[in-house]
Structure prediction request, 131 residues.
Amino acid sequence: MTPSGNPKGKMKELLKNMNDKVRVLTDESWDREVLEAEGPVLVDLWAEWCPPCRKMGPVIDALARVTEGRVTVGKLDVDQHPEVAERYGVRSIPTFLLFRGGSVVDRRVGAMPLEELQALLAAHTVEVAAR
Prediction:
């Protein structure tokens, strides 16, 4: 909770601190930004109350910076937008879904270091800059 006690205020604060390279996804934008995307899309399905999800925030920001122009990186809050999580059978968070051509090509669950996410992308022939 923020000092005002407003949970929506906390969400706005989290999103404000997010790298501008990370797309904030919603149920409404899902098809356009993920399924119809031209290149690969890595989606972090998360929730504000989840400590491992919050731990991944800086990792996702870093990944978005090093893959800019090659991979779209987005975050979807499963509490605010549950339809997508249900559609893909997400039961634990954080869950990372990698899409190509509108289909899931890989899925990982749990917090992980930047290098592991880079390896995930590399396994699907997405060029990733070294940090």
